[in-house]
Every structure is written in structure tokens, then in C-alpha cells.
Amino acid sequence: MIDRMVGAVIFMIAVSAVWVARGYEASFGDPLGPAAFPQMVAALAAILSLGLLLRPDPDPVAQSGPALARQLCTLAVLSGYVLLLEPLGFPLSTTLGTGCLALLFGARPWKAGVTGLAVGISLFVIFDAVLGLPLPFAPAIFG
Amino acid sequence: MDILTSLMGGFAVAVTPLNLALAVFGCFAGTLIGALPGLGPVNGVAILIPVAFAMDLEPGSALIMLSCIYYGCMYGGRISSIMLNIPGDEPAIMTTLDGYPMAQRGQAAKALGISAVASFTGATFATLGLTFFAPLLAKAAIHFGPADYFALYVMAFATIGGVTGVNPFKTLLAAVLGLLLASVGLDPATGTARFTFGSFHLYDGFDPIVAIVGLFAVSEIIMYFESHATSGAGPVKLGRALPRLREMFEGYGAALRGSVIGFICGVLPGAGASLGAFVSYSTEKQLSDKDGTFGTGDPRGIAAPEAGNNAASGGALIPMLTLGVPGSGTTAVMLALLVSLNIQPGPLLFERQPDLVWGLIAALYLANVVLLVLNIPMVGIFTRLLSLPQWLLMPIVVMVSFIGIYSISHSTFDLFVMIGFGILGYGLRKLDFSLVPVVLGLLLGADMENNLRRALSISGGEFGILLQSPIALVIYGFTALMLVFSFGIAMRQRPGAG
Where is the signal peptide (chain A) (predicted)? Predict the structure, then answer.
């Protein structure tokens, strides 16, 4: 069932891509122009998605609740990490991010904390000091 | 003679202290990443590409390090297959069939020894093949015109994974989606903004490396909670650390046969190491499984697929270097690296940058020797690392890939794009789409479009030019054959489905 839904979504995306691309024109350059290739590819995608609609595979195994919750939490942690990376600086945000991930992967709280701190500091030292890759230190505190 | 002189020149490049150190580091890191459950060569190379950027290496040195990581991952993949019954990566799946039963019988060291020798055999065979075959192919490929290249790209997409038996509709659709993603951004020929929806961040399109790390590494993290949550069993006991020399050469015939089969599978576009391992194993089973011992811990059942997948991964370098068309996911990632270092692989690479190509080939010979040392006397280090808790290893892998991507552009937008690709990759994997065609599409889309447009400029917009060259016709013929074959298999496997 889910295959049919995905097929339908891809079909709609492909058709709208063909439609959006019809406006891409250049008055100079090659005979084919910027629109033709994306349109060919999108048309092919539309045709293939029909195959998915007509001959779907059996549904994948349904997700267990706790696993799904952890997956969503992981995505939240990763997104939060990216949002905080520049404001909080690399060492602090990485400590928090690594600690939270370690918790999600089943570490005890104090172990997660120690892991986070160790990873946050050592990666900062390795990449910033040793490899010379400038990483934000702590802009929120030191401006 | 020509080749031997070039190879000597290559060794002169490869044995400089820096390159040698990078090779050893690459072998070690590769084996480690390969050994971690779920993290294969694609992840290993993708995560460490940004590290290579950060180290500000010469293109040649970066390529040496990453190729050694690639070879190392292929060696390492077998360790968790044998010790944990969890393949480190897809090509190592076949190794679990006989490797784990053997380890359960207390012969883990022997199984690791046999597979190390088989890996060495396969990888060395493939490197020899690369040495002698790649220059020939490069010479032939100089005559390829834009229409021929277009045909070559069509073949790469049409045949990728086509013989592995997953739903061929999905494989083709994945490739086409990759091509569609590749057209996002400014059209290089005319400057038209395509599918950017007015966002300046998208004008450069999606950086293939960002997409690859997202698709493979981030989706692996999300996938982890489902696939590994239940396997609580620790690794089996290693027993005695070093197997006897004689034991390691059991099934050596199988390793040699596996090498040849794997190499051929690797050179074929889109087939890659998984197929190499699969075909080697099943051929060996038909040839020599007289007593039905395969699947219960037969040494030949370890030697054949390990030689096969290592030979295939070496063979896959040939189309990547000589034609610029990668034959596997990992070589696709390495192509992304070369392109971002402003090196265009293809037939001219051998003429214009012999140091780079031959330095790489020489480094691969050295890597094989280093890997043999790492994987027989020192294999205990890696098996011990396997018993480190996942809550320690996984977050480190995540953080290294985030730093790496951040280091490319210093933009948090790229990190969000990466997470987005991670979600996409998870969804695709869940639905049994292969990710490699998506990456290939994203990576090769621009070149494919370029060659098409160049061919049509030559002909003045006449599509007939695509079918005028005999080389292109041969390629299309082969493609059609492979497509019929793979759809035929798929139809037979699922009679009346849908």
C-alpha cells in the first residue's frame, strides 16, 4: 500500500517538475536548452512511478513504538545540534549533542555525560588545533 | 614495459613518508570502520572525505588515503560478519553464512585467518588487473565522443544493481530521482536557475558529498534503532589469537576462483562488491559443495565470497578512473572527491596526471601488504573494539561526519540538507530502494546532461547523432540485454505479485 502512495507522490512531483521546467529558457547557447534534460528525466520518473503504482512490493515490517520514538528523538537532537552549533560554539554544543545521542543509544546518564564531554573537547582539539580547521569556539559567551 | 616503468614511478610517489603514513592510517581506519556493524566502505569514505579536505592534502595523497580506507573497509567488513553474525557492510553478508558457524565452533581465529588471506588474494588480483587493464581501457576510451559518453551513462543507470534482484522499477526510479536532484541549481551552460524556488542556498545545487553522508551515514543512525535493537549477543570468543599457517590456506582454490569472478563483477558498471561476493559464493557452492557442508562453516564458503568482494572493489576502480563512470557506491563517492579536487577522471587522466594514477595503484599494492599485517597478527585489536558499546561508537561517528560536512562550507544550511538527505535515505531504504543509484544520478547528472547537450550541439539539435556511433550502439545493445535480463529475473521471482 505504501508503495502505491509513494508512487503517487513521485508521479505528482515528476509531473510538476515537467511543468515547472517548461519556463526555463535561454536565448543563447545550445540547441537543447536548460529545460529539456530535466523534463526528459522527470517524464521518465513519472513513467517509472506508474510501475510502482501498478506493481507495489509488500509493505515493510511495521515499526515498533519505542524505536520510532528514539528515531524521532535522534532527528530532534541532530537538528537541535545544528541550530545551536554556531550560537553555543563547537565544544559546548558537541558535548550536549554527543551526550544526548549516547543516552538515546542506551548509555547510563553519567557515562553519557562523560562521553559527551570527552568527545566535545577532543574533537575540537583534533580538528581546530591539530588539523587547523577553524570551528566556532563559544561565540555566545565570548562574542 | 611501459606499464612497469609507470608503476615504478608510482611506487616512488607512494613511498614518500607522508603518503606511506596516510596509507597506513587509511588501512587502519578503514578496517575499523568496516568492522563496525552497519558502517561500510561508502560510509567510511564519505565520512572521511571532509577530513581529507581539512588536512589540506594534495589530490594524490587524499586519493591514496581514501583508497586505502576503501580497501581497509573491505577487509574489515568480514570481522563483524564472523564474530557477531552482523555483516559490517552489504558485501560481507555472504561471509556470515559460513564464517559465523565456524566461529561458533571455536574456530574464529581460523575463520578470520582464511578470510584475511582470501581478501588479500582478491584485492591483489584486482590491483594487478587494474595495473594492466586500466591503461588499455583508457587508451580505447580516448576515442569516445559525447554521444558515446551519454550512452555509457545510460548503461550505468540502466544496469546498476539490476542484477541484484531487488525490484528493478525501484532501482531505475532511484537513479532517475538522483538525476532530477542533480538538475537543482544554476544550469552551468546558460545560468538559468532550476528548481531553486528562489533560495540562494540552492543555486549551487546539492553538494554530492553532503548528500552522500546524509543518505548513508545519517540514515544508518536512524535505521540503527530498528535493525540492531534486538541483537544483544556479544562477539564469540576469539580463541587462540593466531591460526596455524596451514589452516589459513584452506580453501585457497576457492579464493582464486572467487578473485576472478569478483574482479569481472567489479569491472561491470553498476554491479560492485555485493554482486562479486554473491556470485563467487554461489559458484563455489555449485562447484565444490559435494557433502552439503556449505552454510555450516566450510572454509571454502568463507574464502570465495571474501576474495570475490575484495576483487570486485578493486575492479570497480577501473571504470571510475578510466571512464569517470563509477561501478559501485564507494567508487561513486571517490569520484565525488576527485571532482571536488578539480580532477576529472577519464581517459586523459592517465596521460595528464600519471603521478596521481600510478601513485594510487602503487599505494594499493602497499595497502594490501599493510592490511594483511593488520588483519592477521593484529586482528585482536579490531575484535576487541567490536565489544566497545555502541553508545560510545555511534555518537562519535555522527559527530565526525557533522564536523566534516561543516568544514566544507561552514554553513549550517548544508548540515540541514544532510539531515534531510538522511530522512530521505531512511525512507528509501525502508521501501527497499537502493541508495547507490540515487548517488550516481546526483553525481553524474551534470556530466550526462553536458554530454547530451554537446552531442546535440555538434549535430545541430538532431537526436539521430546519439545512435550514429558504433561504440554507442554496442553500449546500448549491451544495456538492453542487461535490462531484459534483470527484468526477467524480477518477473520470475515474483510471479503474480501486485
Answer: none
Structural domain boundaries enclosing B457 = 2-493
Which residue is listed with cell 571517490? B334
Decide if A106 and B189 are in contact by the 8 Å CB cutoff.
no
**Bridge partner list, B194:** B185
**Distance from C-alpha of B332 to C-alpha of A88, rounded to nearest angstrom:** 35
8-state DSSP, B201: G
Residues A84 and A119 in one domain: yes
Residues B172-194: tens digit of each pLDDT: 888 899 999 988 888 877 778 88
Q: Of the ranges B107-111, B368-372, B409-413, B428-432, which is most confident?
A: B368-372
Enter the C-alpha cell of residue B298: 566450510
Task: Report chain A residues whose CB lies below 8 A from the CB of B457.
Answer: 30-32
Closest chain B residue by Cα to residue A134: B407
Q: A37, B183 in Cβ contact below 8 A?
A: yes
Please tell me whether residues A34 and A80 are part of one structural domain. no
- Ranges of H-type helices in B142-207: 146-159, 168-182
Cell numbers placing B398:
555522527
Radius of gyration, CA atoms only, chain B: 22
Supply A104's cell numbers. 538515546
Amino acid at B62: A
Count up the domains in chain A and report the number.
Answer: 2
CA distance B257 to B336: 32
> Which residues, 6 or more positions from B26, have their beta carbon under 8 angstroms from its beta carbon?
B64, B65, B66, B67, B68, B69, B71, B72, B367
Q: How many domains does chain B have?
A: 1
The answer, yes or no, to whether residue B496 has pLDDT greater than 50, is: no
Asked if B194 has any chain A CB less than 8 Å from its own CB, the reply is yes
Q: What is the pLDDT of residues B416-440, one digit of tens each?
A: 999 999 999 999 888 888 787 888 8
**ipTM field:** 0.90
- Measured CA to CA in angstroms, residue B137 lies from A44, B133, B144, B151, B403 at distances of 31, 6, 11, 16, 38
DSSP-assigned beta bridge partners for residue B407: none
What does the buried/exposed string (b/e) look like for B179-210 if buried means 16 or more CB atoms within 10 Å of the residue's CB?
Answer: bbbbbbbbbebbebbbbbeeeeebeebbbbbb
DSSP 8-state symbol, B251: T
